[in-house]
Amino acid sequence: MTLLYLLDTSIVSNPASRTPDTQLLERLDADASACAIGAPVWHELTFGCRRLPRGQRRAALEDYLENVVRRSFPILPYDEVAAGWHSDERARLEALGKSAPFVDGQIAAIAQVNELVLVTANIKDFSRFRGLKVENWLRRSRRR
User: Fold this and answer.
1) Segment holding 1, helix H or strand E
2) I need a surface site. Which of 17, 32, 58, 132 has the fewest CB within 10 A?
3) CA separation (Å) from 137 to 36, 83, 101?
4) pLDDT recorded at residue 100
5) Which residues, including other chains, have CB under 8 Å from residue 27's CB and lie 6 or more apart?
6) What is the pTM of this model?
7) Does the structure show a pLDDT above 50 at 141?
8) Domain ranges in the chain?
9) How many whole angstroms separate alpha carbon 76 and alpha carbon 73?
10) CA-CA distance, 91 to 81, in Å (whole number)?
11) How far apart are CA 57 and CA 94, in angstroms?
12) Integer Cα distance of 108 and 125 in angstroms
């Protein structure tokens, strides 16, 4: 299957939470082969895990990252093309008096240059980026 979606940290981390969203789990299971993550997301996930003290929770997260995330989703790089798009967007936003967290710009750039829909629970964080397609796969379950 062709890649269609780039998953943000908020989506990838949800299945490892104490109360994972069942609808999201079903969607990830159905569309896993069409999904990827960006290198900055991999960094956020592994950094967050490595900050935890050694113990059962950290061991469970390490297992999830290595045996589920890494095996399920290709990790796309933040490369020269993504960096160029990101710098253009940062300059455009700065000229408008707006800004966005650097890592969000990296993730948005990876999605945009690979023509992928960015899937996140934080649509507002990515709404500033021009032309970026964004979906929230957690939205329905939060309306309950």
Assistant:
1) none
2) 17
3) 15, 27, 22
4) 87
5) 137
6) 0.92
7) no
8) 5-142
9) 9
10) 16
11) 40
12) 10
CB 44 within 8 A of CB 9: yes
Which tens digits make up the pLDDT trace of 11-63?
999 999 999 999 999 999 999 999 999 999 999 999 999 999 999 999 999 99
Tokens for 87? 């710098």
DSSP-derived pairing of the beta strands 117-119 and 5-7: parallel
Q: What is the mean pLDDT of the chain?
A: 94
Which residue is it, tokens 């379950």? Answer: 141
As its CATH architecture, domain 5-142 has 3-Layer(aba) Sandwich (3.40)
**Helix axis angle, 102-113 relative to 80-95, nearest 10°?**
120
Distance separating alpha carbons of residues 48 and 50, to the nearest angstrom: 6
